[in-house]
């Protein structure tokens, strides 16, 4: 299977609604590695690696996020995987 890396910036009402925990849970369910963190401007940043199909599932999920989120936009930048992560974590 083809591996890929996706860097996402998610804007909208995405902080204070469980977005990071939900993203970590979804990414782990999909077998992805990487991290998620809140940014000072109110957006959420995600860096994920794994099978292309699983990344597509995470990107699709991020367009709506958890129940209390209101996602305006998901910007995705695809890159070559580096295989530097062992799991998917929350960064602070």
Helix and strand topology:
Elements: E1 3-13, H1 19-29, E2 33-38, E3 44-51, H2 52-62, E4 70-79, E5 88-90
Parallel strand pairs: 2-5
Antiparallel strand pairs: 1-3, 1-4, 2-3
Give an overview in words:
The mean pLDDT is 97. This protein has helices at 19-29, 52-62, and strands spanning 3-13, 33-38, 44-51, 70-79, 88-90. It is built from two helices and five strands, in the order E-H-E-E-H-E-E. It has 92 residues and is α+β, with helices and mostly antiparallel strands. It has one domain: 2-Layer Sandwich (Alpha-Beta Plaits). Strands 4-1-3-2-5 form a five-stranded mixed sheet.
Write a concise synopsis of the structure shown.
This protein is of the alpha+beta class. It is 24% helix and 41% strand.
Which ranges are low-confidence, i.e. pLDDT below 50, for 5 or more consecutive residues? none
Distance between the termini: 32 Å
Strand content is 35-45%
Instruction: Give the CATH class.
Output: Alpha Beta
Alpha-beta classification: alpha+beta
Assembly status = single chain
Number of strands: 5
The amount of helix comes to: 10-25%
CATH topology assignment: Alpha-Beta Plaits
Radius of gyration, rounded?
Answer: 12 Å
Shape, principal axes of CA atoms: globular
Query: Mean pLDDT score, rounded?
Result: 97
* SSE order: EHEEHEE
List the strand order in the largest sheet. Answer: 4-1-3-2-5
Counting DSSP H or I runs of 4 or more residues, the number of helices is 2
Structural domain count? 1
CATH architecture tag: 2-Layer Sandwich
Major sheet summary line = 5 strands, mixed
């Amino acid at each position: 299977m083809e591996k890929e890396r996706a860097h996402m910036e998610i804007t909208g009402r995405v902080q204070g609604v469980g977005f990071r925990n939900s993203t970590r849970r979804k990414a782990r369910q999909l077998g992805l590695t990487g991290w998620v963190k809140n940014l000072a401007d109110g957006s959420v940043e995600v860096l994920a690696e794994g099978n292309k199909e699983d990344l597509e599932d995470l990107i699709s999920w991020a367009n709506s996020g958890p129940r209390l989120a209101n996602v305006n936009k998901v910007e995705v930048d695809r890159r070559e995987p580096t295989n530097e992560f062992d799991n998917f974590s929350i960064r602070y």
